[in-house]
Amino acid sequence: MRFSHLSTDADAHPHLAAVLGDGALFLDEVMERAPRDLQDLIERGDEGLAEVRTVVEAAEASGRELIPVHGLRHASAVLRPPHVIAIGANYAAHASELKLRSEKAATVFNLWPNSLTGHGATTSWPADLSTQVDYEAELGVIIGTPARNVSVRDALDYVWGYTVVNDITARDLQFSEAQWSRCKSFDGFTPTGPVVVTADEIPDPQDLWLTTNVDGAILQDASTADMVRSVAEIIEFLSRSATIPPGTLISTGSPGGAGYSRTPPVFLRDRSTVTVSIGGIGSLTTYCRVI
C-alpha cells in the first residue's frame, strides 16, 4: 500500500490518505477510528494496517470515488517521527567526490524535525547564510517495530516502509563545522515523499534506482546496490547501541553526482527545481527560493 499526508488547500491540516494510482482516499472519510497520521498507523501494528487494508479494499470494491492527487497538497510523508537518523558517506562515489574518509563504522547524525517538508513544497534559505546549497537523493527507511540487537538476517522484518528523501545540504556550513546536523536541518531541507510504500511492495531495497533531476538535467543516476552498508546492515548497526522506535525515519545516504564535486560546481539557486526519483516508490519535487 501507499500512504500520503494530504490536504485540500494551503490552510487545511493534512490527513492520512491511501494513494491508489492517481487517486487518494482519505481514511477519516471511510473509517470510524481512522489513524490521524502515519505515525499513529505504525503504532497500531500489524492489526492496524490489516484493518486499513480491509477498509480500503471495501471502498474500492464499492466504487467509491477517489480524489485526484494532483489537486491536493502534500505534507511530509512522515509526521511526528521519534527520530530522523541520517547515514553519511554510504556510497563510495559520494564519499570520494566530497573527499570524505570511509570510516570503519557508519557516519551517523540526526536531522532536525523542522527540516521535514513535502512533495511540491518550496524550500527557501537566506543568501547570507549559504551560497553552496546542494541536493542528495536518498532512500528513506521507516521502522515498524522496536528494533534492538537486530541481526542482518532479520533486519528487513523491522521495516514498515520506504520513501524518497532529498537530503538538502549547505556545503559551506558542512565543511566549516565539526558536525553535520545544522547544515542539513534548515527549515524544509529534508523533503520526503510523495508517498510511503509499505515494505511488502519493495522485495529488495538494494535493487532500486535513484535519479536526481535539477532544472532539467540528470545529475545523479545510481543503484542502491552501490551502498557501502545495506539497509539491513544499517539497522543492525544502529540497533546494537539503542532501540530504534517505530516510526523512525532513516535516510540511508546519497550516491555520487553531488553538485559540490562538479566542474564547475552546480548548486541550487533561486527558482531551481529538483526532482528526486526512486524506482518503485515515486518522484519527489522541491522548488527552491533564495531570500
Short description:
The protein has five helices and 20 strands. It has helices at about 40-45, 45-60, 90-95, 170-175, 230-240; strands at about 1-5, 15-20, 25, 65-70, 75, 85-90, 105-110, 115, 120-125, 135, 135-145, 160-165, 170, 190, 195-200, 210-215, 215-225, 250, 275-280, 280-290. A hairpin with a 2-residue loop joins strand 16 and strand 17.
What would the principal axes of the Cα set say about the shape? globular
Task: Give the N-terminus to C-terminus distance in angstroms.
Answer: 38 Å
| Largest beta-sheet details | 11 strands, mixed
* Number of discrete domains: 2
Predict the CATH topology of the largest domain: Fumarylacetoacetate hydrolase, domain 2
Q: Please name the fourth-level CATH homologous superfamily of the largest domain.
A: Fumarylacetoacetase-like, C-terminal domain
Query: What is the percent of helical residues?
Result: 10-25%
Which structural class should the secondary elements be placed in? Answer: alpha+beta
Describe this entry's structure for a reader.
It is a single chain. The protein has 2 domains: 73 residues, no CATH class; 207 residues, Fumarylacetoacetase-like, C-terminal domain (Fumarylacetoacetate hydrolase, domain 2), CATH 3.90.850. Helix content is 14%, strand content 31%. The protein has 5 helices and 20 strands. The strands form 4 sheets. Strands 1, 2, 3, 4, 5, 6, 7, 11, 12, 15 and 18 form an 11-stranded mixed sheet that branches. A 5-stranded mixed sheet has the order 9-20-19-16-17, with no helix packed on it. It has a two-stranded parallel ribbon with strand order 8-14. A hairpin with a 2-residue loop joins β2 and β3. The termini are far apart. InterPro entries: FAH, Fumarylacetoacetase-like_C, Fumarylacetoacetase_C_sf.
